[in-house]
Amino acid sequence: MSAADTLIPVGRIAGPYGIKGWVRVTSFTDPQQNVFAYAPWVLRDAQGKRPTRTVGVLDNKSHGKGWVAKLDGVPDRNAAEALKGLEIAVARGCLPEPDEGHYYWTDLEGLQVCNRDGEKLGRVDRMLETGSADVMVIEGDGAVGRRLVPFIMHQTVIAVDLDAGSIKIDWEEAEE
Q: Which pLDDT does position 176 carry in this prediction?
C-alpha cells in the first residue's frame, strides 16, 4: 500500500438520524464540514483495523451543532443503526497537503521524540485533543513509561522532521 493509499480517520458514525437511512456524523476535520469534501469514505471498526465497506455520501446537512449525512446503500434506520460507531476513513491521497508547520496526527504517530539535549524520550503513540492544545502521548523506554506533552509549535515543539522520523521538544522532567 502506497502512502497515498494509507487510510486516515476523518470522523465517526455517531448513530442513525430519522427513519430514512441518514446518519449522525462526528467530524475530526477542521472545519467540521470538510469531512464531506473527501470521498469515498471507508467505514471500518472502532479500532480502525478492518474495513467494513466503502460508501459515497449522497447528501449532508448541518443539524444542531453537528452534521447528518445520507449514504449510498443505506436505505433505512436499521441499516443506519448497523453503522453506529464505525470510523470514517479516507485515502491519504484525498487530503490536501498541510500548510508549513502543520501536520496530520497520523504523520506524527510513531516519530521518535528527543529533548534539546538529544536525549531520546520515546515515540509518539497517539495524539489527543484537549481543547486548549493537542497533546502527544509519548511511550518511553526505561524508567519513565508514558509522557503527555503539549504539541505547541515554537514552544514545546522545537522542530518536526518527518523525513528523519523525529520531533525535538523543549521538555525537561520535573525534579522530585
A: 46
